[in-house]
Amino acid sequence: MAARKGSAPKLGDVLLVTGSESFLADRAVRSAIAAVSKTSSEVEVTDLDASTLDVGVFAELTGPSLFASERVLVLRALENLPSEMAAHLVEYAGSPADDVLVVLVHSGGQKGKGVLDKLRKASVNEVVATAPKAWELPQFVAGEIRLLGGTVDEGAASALVDAVGHDLRALAGACSQLVSDSGGQAVTAELIGQYFGGRAEVTSFAVADAAIAGRTEPALEQLRWALDCGVAPVLVTSAMAGGLRGLAKYASASGGMRDADLAREVGVPPWKLKQLKQQARGWTPGGLAAAIKAVAQADADVKGASGDAGYALERMVLTITRSHGRR
After folding, report:
1. 6, 72, 73, 106: least buried by Cβ within 10 Å?
2. Is 63 exposed, middle or buried (0-12, 13-18, 19+ CB in 10 A)?
3. Are 105 and 84 in contact (CB under 8 A)?
4. What is the DSSP string of 159-208?
């Protein structure tokens, strides 16, 4: 999730936005611009790729302006900043202009880390845009709905994740639509079913749940339906891998742990432990190992090792369901 260090951005600040989750990074940029715009009706915003920056352009954008007294400069892809500009940018961060907010966006990774370290030493404010883990997505949904003025319970939030998937932009858009159309009432699983029920029935998670439960025919039916509806094969292998990984962690966890501790150990929300407990009854270490191996092979196949992704996924489902209960 996005985490902020320091106070809200204002003119005279340098704000560093780091992390690979583009939706959260874009939101941080929009929030910074909005915060500055609240205090002025005329804010000039310039949005550039850092790779295009040179000393002259930077001086022009951060120096005195004849046309706008208050400005925001957004520099994206900071990791591509020309090497000759690094020293100028760090020097500016140490003594920024009073009438300019500079927002620096770095997409994560090691490239450009030296500049990041120097900027942090200059005590710039930072927003970290980190993608939430899969088990945190219902929390993200609940937070989005609360932010929009609505309410939702944990089960309904999880149902929306199952229906829409893991893309944050899609989830945020769904939250906005549901709150807008809920008429001030709580967002319920029934309402989500009305809007997204068709999508929920063909998600990769439905395929994974049926296969892990050892239900061959329903799993194959869900798989064919999902592929017919345009679900990407890689999403099916990803969901299957995540389901089996969580099951393996649950099965190998120490006994006697509290639910909260066990959930953290396995990497799932506490409500999902009941489902894992039911699933674990039909699995042995040997069966899990065979199933995980089948997913790894299918994942390689759908990413190019095989010319028929549908066949590769069907073979994976059959191997997994046959491994269920295997000694």
Report:
1. 6
2. exposed
3. no
4. HHHHHH-S-HHHHHHHHHHHHHHTTTSPB-HHHHHHHHHHHHTTSHHHHH
Most confident of 30-44, 114-128, 244-258: 114-128
Q: Which pLDDT tens digit goes with each residue over 118-175? A: 999 998 999 999 888 888 899 999 999 999 999 999 889 988 887 787 888 888 988 9
Beta strands in 33-99 (DSSP E): 44-49, 71-76
Entry pTM: 0.63
Token duo for residue 315: 């073979």
Residue 315 to residue 125: CA distance in whole angstroms? 51
Is pLDDT at 7 greater than 80 in this prediction?
no
Question: Any idea of the CA torsion for 236, 240, 242, 247, to the nearest 10 degrees?
Answer: 160
